[in-house]
Amino acid sequence: MQDKNCQKLDKQDFSQIIGSSRIGFWKVEEQEGCPSKLYTDSTMANLIGVSQELSPEDCHSFFLHHIHPKDISTVKNYIAEIYHGESEMIYRYNHPQKGETVIMCSGKLLNTSGNVYTFGGYIKELTNVLRLEQGKRVENQLLRKNRSLMHTQVQSENYHKNLMDIVRCGIVSYTLPGWEILYMNAEAIRIFGLKNCKNAQPKMRKILQEVVYLNNSIKQKLIELRTKDGSVDYECIASSTDGKKSNLLAHTEVLTTPQGKRSVYTTFLDISENIALKSEKSILTALCQDYAFVCLYDLETGSLTSVKQSEDQSGLFPVIGEKQEENSYSKHLTACFEKWIVKDSSPDFLEKLSSSSLMEYLSSHEQFSYRYRVKPNSTGMEHLEVKVVHLKELEGFKVVMGFHFIDEILTEEERQRKLLEETARQARQANESKTNFLRRMSHDMRTPLNGIIGLLKIDGAHFDNLPLIKKNHERMETSANHLLSLINDVLQMSKLEEGHYLLSKEVIKVNTLVKEIANIIIGRATDAGIQWHFKKEKDNPPVKYIYGSPLHLRQIFLNIYGNCIKYNRPGGRIDTVLRSWNTDPGFCNFQWIITDTGIGMSREFLSHIFEPFAQERNDARSIYQGTGLGMSIVKGLLNQMGGTINITSREGFGSTFEITIPFEIAPSPQEEPVQSSETENSIQGLNLLLVEDNTLNAEIARILLNDEGAKTTIVSNGLQALKTFEKNPPGTFDGILMDIMLPVMDGLETTRRIRSSGRPDAKTIPILAMTANAFDDDVKKCLEAGMNAHLSKPIDIKKIKAALSSLCRKD
Q: 665, 699, 718 — which closes off a domain?
């Protein structure tokens, strides 16, 4: 209750109080689409430094322009709140004469009429307010307001932080230089495999340095941001602390912090999943490349989703033009069967592809395939295959169905079938040929062996009949040589088929080679009653010396001439014409045309003459002693020499062989080698170390060597040979005859160990291979191991004497 003695303030009192309090009153009108208007009293105009002559619109603009920049956001918040009722604030104001002042402003919404809002209130300058109790209350009020504002700011910051943490975009900010992290949201922490922002500080520099940029120029642009303002958009691959890689789409720019530091602000989006989806789509497109129609069917509901669809739908379903109805799978199937399919080719089409049948089958199988025939389409294709796969991970019973034309596949399958049949036929034929060959070889090898064994038994029963024994030994030698020839042919053919055959490269005198071959053939032809004629197209070949393998050249011509003699008739004839011409610089072609008057060959057999084991007549092995390998060996050797052979023949009239071989021209040697006579090949008095594990072979070699005047020491393995050589004084042995296949240590390793033993004679003592390993690559291995010569078994004492005489002869 008001005190009765209290006197009410009159208008003069109000006027004096208001005039002394420096409180200014204002009114603002807001209308959408029009400038705001500010109306003030004189005190208000003085407090904000505005001229009374300004219009309300300019007055409002003047007021807003002079608010302290750092408090503009506060004023805007105040304006936003005043629309909802009453509001109060304190802010700094830049007075045009007095400079910075502090203003307290209070106001509220006074009226709303249509789209016009009217606000009113007052302001008071607090710059020079005395700090009395009333001032303290104002200060406390200001403190409370500031605390409220701080609380609002914290809430706002938390709101924005939570907002940044839930976005799928990574955000990170750090200073330059120093790499001090200013901010990192949850997505960035996840991508980099970190626990929190604090955990990121010691690891961030390493993480950023390991980023891989898809464009090489991006890294330089980012480095330039350290000193220049700007921004960069790019793609990169970042690795987390646990090694997981992420594809990122990033934007980086440089900002300045309120403290004046340069900071990098990067936002990035993890697009790894998009890239994976793009990759999967590419894979799906590639897998569907050969399919004309691919769709997704729900067999329970009949609904259809097309994945790929070509223009030509011949034989596919759903039939183009048909209405896509719910539960229409069976209708699509029936329409396709009636419109496109050749009924006789696929009578069970509807049954096999029915939804019930497919669901039953695919419940226990991964996929279902069905081929059928349709009316030919515009390109003439008429064979289709549908593949159905159950998508077990999806709800319902959904399947992917792919349709593609398989005419080319069927053509290829038929070609492959015929090819397999032909391969199988050839394999059977080859096996049959080999079986027949082995049967013939068994017969041919047993024949001389039977003769040798039989003659040995005869000799055992007639020791006192020296003429008979001598004659039998000659027969046994002939049989043994024939047996050796059979074995050599088989082994040589095996090497040629495997491609492991190596030819030597030696200087050959052409006339000498021709004479050597002629001397052998003339004798054989004369013995068989065959005339042999040789003619050169020119008086002399264009070159005298060539590079080649004389052993194998002799073998080629002896095989061919041998056949010409073997399959000729008594009183027959063999004619040879030699041609030669220069081709490329450094090379020369030689051509031999050899014609016989023998029994000839059929045209059918000529197409198989170079096949191993081929013989036209079943009696060839018994009458002509043939193995069926001679021409195969000739062909194989000529192929390695780069040569060719052409054969023409007529049964009952004879055959013609045309052999052409290119040779590299060799320079003339300085001097001709001097041929040693038989009397010079003496091994009398040589002390030899014989390394042989076969007792019988060792005994034969010892007797043959001793008969020639040499002394032999026999050991049975490589290790014994090494120890025997090392324990005897240097010079004890004049030479070593070394087998290759030995127990404990083979001949090659033994030779290497001897050569590296360090003895005075280790490098100089002759070591000769005496082995059944008789191919050119065996010779090469022996020479590479440190041997001086290679002698093949069976033992030929003449060759052994010649080699030992040249390498080990004592003066």
A: 665
